[in-house]
TrEMBL record:
This is AraC family transcriptional regulator. It comes from Actinokineospora bangkokensis. It holds the Pfam family HTH_18. GO terms for molecular function: DNA-binding transcription factor activity; sequence-specific DNA binding. InterPro entries: AraC-bd, Homeodomain-like_sf, HTH_AraC, RmlC_Cupin_sf. Residues 151-248 form the HTH araC/xylS-type domain. Keywords: DNA-binding, Transcription, Transcription regulation. Transmembrane segments: none annotated. SMART domains: HTH_ARAC. PANTHER family: HTH-TYPE TRANSCRIPTIONAL REGULATOR NIMR.
Length: 253
């Protein structure tokens, strides 16, 4: 789901998105914060893919082409960020963990419909941007390839993250040699085949856990041999165990 065009803005009204609903590739001339009050939002740009469950806030800077897909019934809230405040946020798309203060200030801004130039709106927006500056930034950006040989392999993995196929076996299916593909992973994505597939699986695990799927079932559904190996892969990347992550997701309103 890598964006290739910029035809439209986000749909008006912010009606909840059905599971698997797509928002076509587009960009804005302003920065935008996106929060899934329920469900989860998967955002793709040319630079990679980000997953934002209901306890995360996604930042998209101005002029970055992006597309989105909902996971579960997803209630997305959108917030414009003016240029003078956007300068305090990253120059690239990012996903942040949302503290209670950050989440409540964000929702108050969106739900109360105060005029953007009102003192209260300006104060709340400054709180949001200040809290984002303190919030942990999600490290789980999944880089996406451009080379068609490598993209053929990553497309297969996106379709079936749990596949146990080796790089050699995937290369046979796509008509590319294992050595060539290994070099492409290193040169274009700055990681190995194993690292990329693990990162893909962990991204999908965030969605499974946010849905309430038990840790053991998530591990087996996504290709790990047992829950322990899943925990060992998940914890260093996310910064907490799958169980703690799921518990935090359950307490998010």
């Amino acid at each position: 789901m890598v964006p290739v065009a910029a035809p439209v803005d986000d749909p008006p009204g912010c009606e909840p998105l059905a599971h698997g609903e797509d928002i076509a590739a587009h960009s804005h001339d302003f920065g935008q914060l996106r929060y899934a009050a329920s469900g989860a939002l998967v955002t793709a740009t040319r630079g990679g893919t980000w997953v934002a469950p209901a306890n995360r806030i996604n930042w998209v800077p101005a002029f970055h082409v992006h597309s989105s897909r909902s996971h579960g019934r997803t209630d997305v809230r959108l917030l414009r960020v003016p240029a003078h405040l956007a300068e305090r946020l990253p120059a690239e798309p990012a996903v942040f963990a949302a503290s209670a203060l950050l989440r409540e200030a964000f929702l108050a801004l969106v739900d109360d419909h105060d005029p953007p130039d009102s003192p209260r709106a300006r104060l709340l927006l400054d709180v949001v941007v200040t809290e984002l500056g303190r919030a942990p930034q999600e490290p789980l950006r999944l880089p996406e390839p451009v080379d068609p040989r490598l993209k053929a392999v990553t497309d297969l993995l996106h379709a079936d993250p749990a596949t146990p196929a080796t790089l050699t076996q995937l290369g046979r299916r796509t008509g590319a040699g294992e050595r060539t593909l290994s070099r492409l992973f290193s040169r274009e994505l700055a990681m190995s085949f194993h690292q990329w597939r693990t990162l893909l699986r962990v991204q999908r695990a965030l969605l499974e856990l946010a849905d309430g799927t038990p840790v053991s079932d998530t591990a087996l559904r996504l290709g790990w041999a047992n829950p322990s190996s899943f925990i060992d892969a998940f914890t260093p990347l996310v910064g907490q165990t799958p169980g703690r992550y799921q518990a935090a997701a359950r307490t998010t309103p």
